[in-house]
Amino acid sequence: MDKNRTFCSFFMGLLVVLTVSLAFSGCDSGEKVVDEVTGNRAVKQYHQSKEDLSKITDRQEERFKDLPDEDKNPDDQQ
Questions:
Q1: Does 77 map to a domain?
Q2: 74 in any annotated domain
Q3: Based on CB atoms within 10 Å of each CB, which residue in 10, 41, 71, 73 is the most buried?
């Protein structure tokens, strides 16, 4: 009876260790979950969007500078 109990205890311990290790290997240290709960993810997305918009604005300004003067204000020509 002692051998069965020892074997079952060992098997259950091994099963628990494997389950926990597989569960943690699927997570990226919980960083995304913490960021989502604290709102840091939204702040990061806001800053990224702000950077993207400034890049787009800069590109549009460069394109606008390259246009000839008569194409810049089509309303003035009418």
A1: no
A2: no
A3: 41
Compute the distance between CA of residue 78 and CA of residue 46 in angstroms, rounded to an integer: 41
Distance CA 65, CA 11 (A): 73
- pLDDT digits 0-9 by tens, 3-49: 888 888 898 999 998 887 766 666 666 677 777 778 888 999 999 99
Percentage helix, strand, coil for the chain under 3-state DSSP, each rounded to 5 = 80, 0, 20
Q: How far is CA 54 from CA 5, 15, 51, 72, in A?
A: 67, 53, 5, 21
- Which structural domain range is residue 44 located in? 2-67
